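Revision sheet: structure tokens.
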Amino acid sequence: MSAPLTRRERLVLAIAVLASFVAFLDGTIVNVALPAIRDELGGGLVTQQWVVDAYLITLGALILLAGSVSDAYGRVLVMRIGLIGFAAASIAIAAAPDPLVLIIARAAQGAAGAFLVPSSLALITSTFRGAAQGRAIGIWTAMTTGAMVAGPLIGGLFVDLLSWRLAFLINVVPIGITLWLLVRLDAREVRRPDAAIDWLGAALCTLGLGGTVFALIEQPNLGWQHPGIWIPLVLGLTLFTLFLLRQRTTRSPILPLDLFRARNFWTGNVATTFVYAALALNGFVVAVYLQQGAGLSATLAGLAALPITIMMILLSSAAGTLAGKWGPRLFMTVGPLIMAGGSLLLLSVAEDFNYFTQVLPGLLVFGLGLAITVSPLTSAILGAIEPERSGIASATNNAISRVAGLLVIAMLAAILGGALDLDGFHRAAIVTAALMAIGGVVSLFGIRNPRREESSSPASAARGGPTG
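Predicted:
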């Protein structure tokens, strides 16, 4: 039986959950709000892609910088910066008069969100040890991933009953509560006096991703031969390559490549790439198609994802605890394969639409697989790295997951065949299933469970291993 949490542990967990809740909630509310944004501001599919990807570009690029800043200058300071910046960007989104301002504000919001997730997980991994860490990450996963999936429901209610603009202001309450709890925590920050931040590397990463994504999104409109496509693509790939090369030589890299020497870390991040690309694709396509294709209201489209939320809340903590005892490999293999099966069940969606027979079974299976996967995946990756580097390890994993989603949304037109009609929906389901299956196979052959005697030893606890 697990020991009860101390007051400090409960406070740390509450802060970590609320801070990440803010970023995940707004990151998914946008999916169900996209049709309303299109109707009011115009722009079609390309604008919808940019509203999603502007957030993911800055989040994916700057989360690496935030991880370094978190380890160097303190997790609480980084979290405060992120919370205040996120609130300001949310207000700008709610007031946006046109697509350009909205996209710029979403990019600013992603930049602020980059400071929330790595500092949240770093607080957990520096506070909890052994099996307790797996349990804490399981609770964090249940709540934050639940927020990620509940976002469409909350957004749908605001879109139908009030305005899509107000949906982006609901995070004011959790931001205020989190800032108050940070004062009560009275944490002693651990800071490195010799800290140096690779600002040039951050710029190379951001511009590299931005140029590449711009080319992928705009290519269907202009074609590969257009200078406005191939020039940003070449520049983007070149800058991102320079970023990777710089990380090998700079004294204080924001992406320490030596992290990838740990087998579970690099293998887990490969699995993350496929799993989170599939999650981003599924979240976008289901939320938008149920409104634009099946004719559901925004609220009903949000309610459609509720079974996944329930599965996450009920099962994620248990999955994290069991993975702490038995190791993550089985969960990281079986979970994505189950999600692949759930995606294929969505192929039953037809012109004569029926949610309960065509969509609900697939979402239930998908939710089961997601609950089995996410917490063990997080534990395996962070448990492979020593606790004092947990900030950058968490940031790296989160950056990879966001960039995976960023790229798959950028390639949306190619995946759908140009339009999000029924055929496009079916193509997206097949691609989602394929990505999930690859993630499961990577985990099967790549992830190693810690030996039982190692996982229960003091050395293992010092490394922050999730098993006990």
